[in-house]
Amino acid sequence: MKLLITGGAGFIGSNLVEKLIEKTENEIIIIDNLSGGRKEFIEPFLDKIKFHKVDLLNNADKYFSGVEEVWHLAANPNVKDSSPETFFKDLKITKNVLESCKRNKVKRILFTSSSTVYGESKINTPENCETKPISFYGATKLACESLISTYCSLYKIQGFIFRLANIIGKNSTHGVIYDFVQKLLKNEEELEILGDGTQTKSYLSVEDCINGMLIARDKSENLINIFNLGNKDWINVKEIAEIVVEEMLVGGLIKERPKFKFTGGVEGGRGWKGDVKEMLLDISKLEKLGFRPKYNSKESVRKSVKETIHNKIITV
Ligand SMILES: NC(=O)c1ccc[n+]([C@@H]2O[C@H](COP(=O)([O-])OP(=O)(O)OC[C@H]3O[C@@H](n4cnc5c(N)ncnc54)[C@H](O)[C@@H]3O)[C@@H](O)[C@H]2O)c1
Fold first, then answer.
1. Which atom of ligand 1 is nearest to 141's Cα?
2. Same structural domain for residues 41 and 148?
3. Is residue 209 part of a domain?
4. Cβ-based neighbour number of residue 28 at 10 Å
5. 13 and 66, same structural domain?
6. Are 250 and 225 contained in the same domain?
7. Does pLDDT of 316 surpass 60?
8. Cα 186 to ligand 1 centre (Å)
9. pLDDT of residue 263
10. Which of 29, 64, 132, 140 gives the lowest tally of CB atoms within 10 Å of its CB?
């Protein structure tokens, strides 16, 4: 099968490529402008894939010729830095990708959306919960979902929308773990923690995330398929900081426990305006298809801290 991955040199994308090339019959094309991704993440597979450094704000039609399946991951992945400008940019990228899918008769598109589409979600948020985003990031994902649903319906492209929790692991270059490791490498005496540290969310290892998406793809036959994808438990930011400190002490990267300095945050201890304070998705829809996360939130965090420390992607 000929597959195209937008954002394939990024964190989730590079892990996805590694998994998809296990099937030798897969022919993989990556499009990435390397704004967030890194060539080194896909370096080990370059002899088995085709990589094109292309900005999807421009027409990339020619790369979609003969493609059966598109994984659309390219986007600004930072909730904190999202803005009306990133909203329109990512919506345009998605429109361009969908137009290319339509013109080249692509059979299937899979899209990495986010739990942030729900906004102030309740505990165990199901897929049919109201969507009321409170960040430009969440609004962008919801708008992209609408566009995908429309193209899929009009042009009979099968669509998969994955509302992801916090995905962590090898090659991650953003998010709370990366942030803490980076800060401690710069200053081991004090760790600044955004908010009051009680922000509590579900974290899923990238390995489980990819397995979940593949289970959904292989077992669901509807035209448009929406799945939550996260862990069944959660962990707060202070506990994550403790794990980062423990692992960095064990690894000899810091010599003593740092002092935690909480910024206090905004609106009841959030890390930033638009940060959802608590997030736990109901994943029973995907569980019914056989999905079982291998690592819980705490195990995923510990594994990800070790990978972040050891894979030398930190830039101080
Ligand atoms: N990591 C998470 O916790 C998480 C959670 C929910 C959703 N997502 C979504 O999953 C996807 C992948 O996220 P990630 O964490 O791997 O981030 P990432 O930044 O590592 O990957 C995104 C990739 O898209 C590329 N890209 C961005 N704009 C582009 C453009 N105009 N043209 C071509 N390439 C472009 C970047 O260079 C990068 O390689 C994103 O859509 C993100 O919003 C991630």
1. 43
2. yes
3. yes
4. 22
5. yes
6. no
7. no
8. 26
9. 92
10. 132
| Site to substitute for ligand 1 among 51, 52, 73, 81, most atoms within 8 A of C-beta | 73
Give the strand pairing for 235-236 and 200-201. antiparallel
The predicted-structure confidence for 132-185, as pLDDT tens digits, reads as follows 999 999 999 999 999 999 999 999 999 999 999 999 999 999 999 999 999 999
Distances (CA, A) of 195 to 77, 141, 157: 20, 24, 42
Q: What is the CATH number of the domain that holds 215?
A: 3.40.50.720
Residue 314's pLDDT is 57
The rounded Å distance from CA 32 to ligand 1 centre is 9
Output the pTM of the full model.
0.97
Q: Are residues 214 and 66 in the same domain?
A: yes
Residues 20 and 150 grouped into a single domain: yes
Asked if pLDDT for residue 48 goes beyond 70, the answer is yes
User: Pocket residues for ligand 1 (CB within 6 Å)?
Assistant: 7, 9-13, 31-37, 55-57, 73-75, 77, 93, 112, 114, 164, 166-167, 173
DSSP class of residue 288 equals T
Domain that holds residue 124: 2-167+204-229
Residue 2 sits at φ, ψ, to 5 deg, of -90, 120
What are the DSSP calls for 167-218, one per residue? EE-TT--SSHHHHHHHHHHH-SSEEEESTTS--EE-EEEHHHHHHHHHHHHH
CA of 293 to the centre of ligand 1 (A): 22
Looking at the fold, whether 129 and 92 belong to one and the same domain comes out as: yes
> Residue 168 C-alpha to ligand 1 middle, in angstroms?
13
Is the same domain home to 111 and 134?
Answer: yes
